[in-house]
Amino acid sequence: MALAMKPACERCGNGLAMDGEGSVCSFECTFCRGCAGDLMQCCPNCGGELATRPRRATGPKRA
């Protein structure tokens, strides 16, 4: 099962590039770096820790 790479911050709506910075909780709630900082790295939906979202390459897949 792959991580759902959501395209926008759930708090402010700013777009998030697949290879850009973002934060997620264990339920894949997604926030931009600024909002994650404002939330003190705590998800407002579940109370879980917000961690740095892994980056996904935007180019062709590697075999």
Question: SSE layout and pairings?
Answer:
Layout: E1 23-24, E2 30-31, H1 33-38, E3 51-52
Antiparallel strand pairs: 1-2, 1-3
Overall description:
This protein is mostly loops. Helices cover 10% and strands 10% of the residues. The chain has 1 helix and 3 strands. The protein has a 3-stranded antiparallel beta sheet. A hairpin with a 5-residue loop joins strand 1 and strand 2. It is globular and about 35 Å long. The two termini are 18 Å apart.
Helix/strand structural class: little secondary structure
Task: Count every helix, treating DSSP H or I runs of 4 or more residues as helices.
Answer: 1
Strand content: 5-15%
* Biggest β-sheet: strands ordered side by side in the sheet: 2-1-3
Order of helices and strands: EEHE
Provide keyphrases for this structure:
three-stranded antiparallel beta sheet, 1 helix, about 60 residues, little secondary structure, about 10% helix
